[in-house]
Design goal:
- The protein has about 425 residues and is of the alpha/beta class.
- Helices cover about 50% and strands about 10% of the residues.
- It has 17 helices and eleven strands.
- The strands form three sheets. Strands 1, 2, 3, 6, 10 and 11 form a six-stranded mixed β-sheet that branches. Strands 8-7-9 form a three-stranded antiparallel β-sheet. Strands 4-5 form a two-stranded antiparallel sheet.
- A hairpin with a 2-residue loop joins strand 4 and strand 5.
- Helix 2 crosses helix 12, helix 2 packs antiparallel against helix 14 and helix 9 packs across helix 16.
- It starts with a helix and ends with a helix.
- Bound molecules: beta-D-glucopyranose.
Length: about 425
Amino acid sequence: MPNCSLLTTLAFFFAVLQASLSAPVASANRLEVFSWWTSGGESAALDALFNVYKKQDPGVEIVNAAVAGGGGSAARPVLQTRLARGNPPDTWQSHPGWELIGQYVDPGYCEPITDLYKSNDWDKAFPKELLINMMTKDRKIYAVLAGIHRGNVLWYNSKLLEQNGIKVGDQMTLDQFFAACDKLKAAGIPALGVGDSGIWASAQLFENTLLGIIGPKGWADLFSGAMQWDDPKVKEAMKAFAKMQDYMNPDHAALSWDQAIKELMKGKVAFSSMGDWAYGEFLKANQKEKEDFGWVSHPGTAGSFVIVADGFTLAKGAPDRDAAIAWLKCVGSKDAQEAFNRLKGSIPARTDVDRSKFDAYHQWSMDSFAKDKPVPSCVHGEAAPAAFEQAFNDAVTAFMVDRNIDNFASTLVLAAKKSVSAK
Ligand code: BGC
């Protein structure tokens, strides 16, 4: 005959165990930060942010819940599962625009942080029209930005270009780019370094190429529905994107974005079209600006700044709410913005930082942000709902294989229609 009191004790024990596995763990001394910053440059910058936080709140243990995979391709699905199960991290990385509002605010996963804007004078420190509005719903603000990346940068290996007699000026046209590619191809060098083990990296190459052909006005028209995805101009961009594939490193599908940047540093490839998180990798490898690597706007996109901004949220029901609020205050502080962005490659979202603390690339990007046309990124979740972003990535995957422009265009026309009707 089983011992009843033992059974009761065991049942109690398992009930407690189960509850502790499913419920978020609350503790006064803990803060869980979720992001996808795991490459060399990304984690160095995240550590810098943690260090500023630790100075302000030394007793708190930071749990770094970063999930590897550039562009958040692996992190975002993990996050969705946790949110759906009611097990949120205290705070997580999000792009403003559709990603923040559609994925996290509308389903009720975030708490507004409007009060922090008031109590810290952030209304004045951050550009309102451009950025705060992308994080606002029903007059409530839901994130604070750590920094702003420029998505449309073409990086190059300075020495390799010099050895091959290629000069890059302040701007580059698509024709100049392809002429350089031909020269390199004749010398047996794959001109364009891509690491699209996460397809977003090629989707971004297409995004940049598309912007170079349709311009910022065309971009606004395309995402408002005034221009269609089978417009002749869009098809021209698809053709140019197809042509670029003839100059890519053959192992692109096996590499991540940062491995492709390492190939560029080694002189195995000459160019890479990548957001300026690439800058963090150059810095981490002690590469010298201009001498070792250079940059120019992705061909045809001078005058536009593709915004890829990184914000942090406050989870509704955050297990460590006080620590999370202190973290957000830290992220929005001048100290944190200066320490983080110097290493990350992005520029501070605050407009009152000390510019002299930043190097030549950042000066260039800050100037561009101040005068160029802002363009929200589709690949990084700002310009369109998640379903369209996914369809865009899938269409790029298919196009890399079949290079069929009509299929590519009609798939995107359909995806855009579906996304409008789902709104
Ligand atoms: C993020 C960057 C990150 C990049 C590559 C982008 O979506 O905004 O912060 O470095 O992905 O992982």
